[in-house]
Specification:
By secondary structure, the protein is of the alpha+beta class. It contains nine helices and 13 strands. Strands 3, 4, 5, 6, 8, 11 and 13 form a seven-stranded antiparallel beta sheet that branches. Helix 7 packs antiparallel against helix 9. The radius of gyration is 20 Å and the shape is globular.
């Protein structure tokens, strides 16, 4: 399935304007989709069958594969450079841009493209759709101001599935490599508790052939980072998020942390829509599949599970505590 779980909003949020004089996205010109040569599974990373069964996909990470043509990569680089003026920072990332799909129609159309989404369904081995929250589409990471800092510290994502694409050619810069830890996030938490980083023998830095190449990542389950640069350079990567369309798998979202980075004018409405979408899909599943029974506790439990995402969103959106972005480095 390659249709959107939710349509992209027809109106822009306050403070966002479309770029002018921008190339129009054309998949015949700008895409050059190729399947990855291999994938690694969550089981290879140490997760149990019981844990994997509840998640959006059994896939952990793919080998690098091509998404953009040379022309597509050139246009995306120009879009990223225009977005750079809107960069913000947080304790995990020195320079990032969120909400770019509300400013660039090219970025929006790339991130929601049906052909690309179908490829991701094939890679993840399940039905997925572009993320229901546009803030999770086309996220950009830029070089840090301080070369001693990692581009993005060791962490796991606030969303289930994503692609990490190189916007600049990683082979033309020193350092700044994308890396992932072959292990569980619980193992990484224990290492961090001991003040340790992942052992080199269990860290993989995929070799990207150039700009416009990406990996598919189970971002909520695989610990990863953008390493520090060795020399000052333009280093840009893009993260595009996806959601499972299956209503009864774990949501795998940590929206509450987004309060530390995202525009509140946009975040809370998107968050509520995502929760409403999940609730609707899970209630529809109940309507289609609920069996006759006199077991009141079972019926009540099913209803409670169907609306748990809505109730969690209500509680977290109402929470006045200060939000922070989790990571595994001091």
């Amino acid at each position: 399935m390659t249709t959107a779980a939710l349509p992209f909003p027809a109106n822009q949020p306050k403070g966002y304007e479309w770029f002018d004089a921008e190339a129009e996205f054309d998949e015949r010109v700008h895409l050059q989709l190729e399947a990855p040569e291999h994938i690694r599974t969550l089981k290879e990373f140490g997760y149990s069958d019981e844990v994997i069964a509840t998640k959006a996909s059994p896939v952990a990470v793919s080998s690098p594969f091509r998404i953009l043509s040379e022309e597509g990569a050139a246009v995306l680089l120009s879009v990223a450079r225009r977005l750079r003026q809107h960069a913000t920072s947080c304790e995990r990332i020195d320079n990032l841009v969120r909400g770019g799909c509300y400013r660039s129609r090219f970025l929006r159309d790339l991130c929601t493209n049906a052909s690309l989404t179908q490829l991701m369904c094939d890679i993840y081995q399940t039905d997925v759709a572009p993320h229901t929250m546009p803030l999770q589409l086309g996220h950009m990471n830029f070089s840090p101001n301080d070369l001693s800092k990692a581009v993005d510290k060791w962490h796991y994502d606030t969303l289930p599935l994503d692609i990490v694409m190189m916007v600049t050619d990683p082979n033309k810069i020193a350092g700044g490599r994308f890396e992932y830890f072959v292990g569980t996030k619980e193992e990484m938490a224990e290492l961090a508790k001991q003040g340790k980083t992942p052992p080199v023998s269990r860290v993989v830095a995929p070799e990207f052939n150039g700009a416009g190449y990406a990996i598919a990542l189970h971002g909520n389950m695989v610990v990863h980072r953008g390493g520090p640069l060795e020399k000052a350079a333009e280093r840009i990567s893009m993260v595009n998020g996806y959601v499972s369309t299956l209503p009864n798998v774990d949501d795998q979202q940590r929206h509450s942390q987004l309060r530390a980075v995202d525009d509140p004018e946009v975040l809370y409405t998107e968050w509520a829509k995502h929760a409403a979408w999940r609730g609707r899909e899970r209630l529809n599943s109940l309507l289609q599949e609920m069996d006759f029974t006199s077991d009141r506790k079972q019926i009540a439990s099913q209803l409670k599970e169907a609306i748990e995402d809505v109730n969690l969103a209500i509680a977290e959106i109402s929470d006045d505590n200060v939000a922070s972005i989790d990571h595994f480095e001091k």
